[in-house]
Design brief:
Low-confidence stretches: 12-18
Number of strands: 0
Strand content: under 5%
Structural class: mainly alpha
Oligomer: single chain
Largest sheet: none
Helix content: 55-70%
Order of helices and strands: HHHHH
């Protein structure tokens, strides 16, 4: 586990010395992260977004945007178990119809794979 106070991002060149520097880290790394997002795997982007959603120092307006991104990604890939985890961690609200739809799509995919 990496401590945010000790983590030294390669694109910043300095150690984040306190939680109050988190906003500075976010501002300075935003453009670098946007440049890297095209090359990052979607799972890593999703994991980063979920981490930031749970972090207390992230602004509420930013959390709204992140939450929309996370939910859209979860829906696009039919990640029903991950949605259940997010609901249990109180990161997302439960939409039973969406969850049932994802489960149905997952079951269809499993049946398709079993037939092969």
């Amino acid at each position: 586990m990496v401590c945010i106070r000790c983590y030294k991002p390669p694109f910043l060149g300095s150690v984040v010395s306190s939680i109050s520097d988190f906003s500075l880290l976010k501002q300075n790394s935003k453009s670098a992260m946007e440049a890297q997002e095209g090359t990052q795997q979607p799972q890593l982007i999703l994991a980063r977004s979920v981490f930031l959603l749970k972090h207390p120092d992230v602004a509420d307006i930013e959390k709204v945007r992140l939450k929309d991104e996370v939910i859209a990604s979860v829906k696009a890939d039919d990640m029903a178990p991950f949605l259940e985890t997010l609901v249990a961690q109180k990161v997302a609200e439960l939409d039973q119809s969406v969850l049932e739809s994802m489960r149905a799509n997952n079951e269809k995919e499993v049946k398709k794979l079993d037939e092969k």
